[in-house]
Design a protein that fits this description.
about 20% strand, alpha/beta, single chain, two-stranded antiparallel sheet
Length: about 120
């Protein structure tokens, strides 16, 4: 593993036996909560930022601004910090302190607005 990015998407599968009575069928769940940001949104954030960088639309001189209420913002803050990109996340003032602190821990500026 070179960076935390290498952990995104490499989440385990868990067989779910109790939902299935057919012995010829197996059902699995992908444990997306095991992504570094704790959500499947890590995949989307990585893809959005990486794709924009590859197209030349985003670089270290870009400031990203995104409206969010949670997991997408956490994931964007994490990915932006890895690539050294400034990000401001706009959230409802009713957002939990835990979420804002997590985003700020990744270096994001968080702006709370009344909704």
């Amino acid at each position: 593993m070179k960076t935390i990015i290498d952990c995104i998407g490499n989440t385990p599968l868990a067989e779910i036996r109790y939902l299935n009575t057919n012995p010829n069928v197996k059902i699995y769940a992908k444990l997306e909560g095991n992504n570094p940001g704790g959500s499947v949104k890590d995949r989307a954030a990585l893809n959005m930022i990486r794709s924009a960088m590859e197209r030349g639309e985003v670089d270290k001189n870009t400031k990203l601004v995104e409206a969010t209420s949670g997991n997408t913002g956490i994931a964007l803050a994490m990915i932006a910090s890895i690539y050294g990109i400034e990000i401001e996340l706009v959230m409802p003032s009713s957002s939990t302190r835990e979420r804002t602190l997590t985003m700020e821990a990744f270096g994001a500026k968080v702006t709370l607005l009344d909704s």
